[in-house]
Amino acid sequence: MTVKKNAHRITILAASCLALGANAADDLPSRDNLFGDDLPIASATTKSPYPSIKGFVQFEAARTTGNPEHWSKLRTRAELGSNGKLGDGLKWKLGARLDYDAAYSINDFYPADVEKNQRYNIELRENYLDVSAGNWDFRFGKQHVVWGEMVGLFFADVVSARDLREFILPEFDQMRVPQWAARAEYFADDFHAELLWIPVASYDNIGKLGAEFYPFQPVPPGFNVSYAAEVRPERDAESMNYGLRLSTLKNGWDVSGFYYRSSDIGQTFYRRLSLPDTFVYEARHDRINQFGGTISKDFGDVVFKAEGVHTSGRSFTTLDFADANGVVRQNTLDWAAGLDFTLPAETRFNVQLFQRKFLEHDPNLIQDRHENGYSLLLNSKYFANWDAQALLIASLNRSDWLLRPKLTWSFWQNWRWVVGADIFNGASIGMFGRYDNKDRLFSEIRHTF
After folding, report:
1. Pairing of strands 278-284, 315-317
2. 3-class SS at 67?
3. Which of 267, 287, 294, 446 fits 58 for a cystine, CB–CB 3.0-4.6 Å?
4. CB burial class (10 A; 0-12, 13-18, 19+) of residue 247?
5. What averages of pLDDT result for each successive group of 10 residues across the chain (449 residues)?
6. Could you tell me the pTM of the whole model?
7. CB-facing half-sphere around the CA of 297: CA atoms within 13 A
8. What pLDDT score does 48 carry?
9. Contact 206, 265 (CB under 8 A)
């Protein structure tokens, strides 16, 4: 039965490789993560009986060019992990990440709370135990759960929390925050079922007030603003997350559907007026229901991929400053559809259309009833070790966009050097325009081992 499970996963992985887009190479699970076991590799040397340490060390620098110009990142990151077997059908994985960002040591640009939050970071990554029994696989521990794979933005990928202290700029595998979860997967021919329970959830990390990409909220002219501490859900039975996902592969079509009940990984900023002239914002996590699905098909040189999610229970900021709590509850439908083209000369082109529809649109919302957008990704290899890429994500409702050109040089075995830019444009209430003064140049050197 292991052969059937692996064959089903290989087919799904092949479609995902072509459709993932901007972060495909680094965002895909490793062979060990995917199959839960070590596949034999031909080698002239004897394999060590002890688990090996794998991971990477990288240095990242970013220079914000907005006024005032400043260093916004000088980070050294090390991510280490190991995996092994405890016997037949029993495997484990351990992982941790360590960061030090010198940008918060060399200048006084940021508030003390931001410096404390982002100068040092030590966190657990995936740490879990795998159990395999016939058609069933079980995973217990801190783990990534990836249900969506569109380019540049999150749609059906609703489970894993995200580190948003750099907005959506890092690679997705670096942004995702694993959840403490128990997961059961059932495989039968081309059918796959997944049961998920998260007793203690992780939530999006938006950093501290004054950080480079902190999600500031609107305030009317003449008023002051303050931010209360974020309110996280209680660690009780009512705040637990759980879900079910079913998928099948028929005639080359990979189709899935899911239901997920959770305390929202994202923050909703509730508002109150503190007399005489100060609005106080408090980040909370709404209790939401989500129904969604994905579909993909490989047509040879073209891959089609689409996702959709209906969400109920989530609230959104209103511009009616007389409103008692500053938010209105809205049901939404988010969808995205894209085509990925494999072109000559090792070139790939991806185009996506996406939309958020507010099913009962409140006229005082910042967003229109239909928020439409698109993304374009062009990637091409030059010579044997150069890779050029440009990603554009933009709104169709207003002038609001993000452009991300970058160049990667794989200059030595297991070494790479990346240089690029993040360019924001738009109005102050736009998804990207609110960071119009945060344009930056960046570079990264990584060694993988």
Report:
1. unpaired
2. coil
3. 446
4. buried
5. 46 40 41 37 53 96 95 98 94 98 94 96 97 97 95 94 97 96 96 97 96 94 95 94 97 97 98 95 98 97 97 97 95 98 96 98 96 98 93 97 98 96 94 96 98
6. 0.87
7. 7
8. 66
9. no
Nearest to residue 204, comparing CAs of 284, 98, 287?
Answer: 284
Question: Taken in order 360, 366, 372, 378, is the CA torsion positive or negative?
Answer: negative
Residue with tokens 């998804």: 431
Q: Which residues contact 45 (CB under 8 A, 6 or more apart)?
A: none
Please choose, from the candidates 160, 34, 143, the residue with its C-alpha nearest in 3D space to the C-alpha of residue 94. 143
Question: Given strand 278-284, what is the order of strands in its sheet?
Answer: 224-227, 278-284, 268-274
| Residue among 322, 378, 323 at smallest CA distance from 348 | 378
Nearest residue to 156 via CA among 256, 235, 253: 256
Determine the pLDDT at residue 211.
Answer: 96
**What is the C-alpha to C-alpha distance for residues 268 and 261, in angstroms, rounded to an integer?**
17
Supply 326's token pair.
């500053």
In a 3-state reduction of DSSP, which class is residue 232? coil
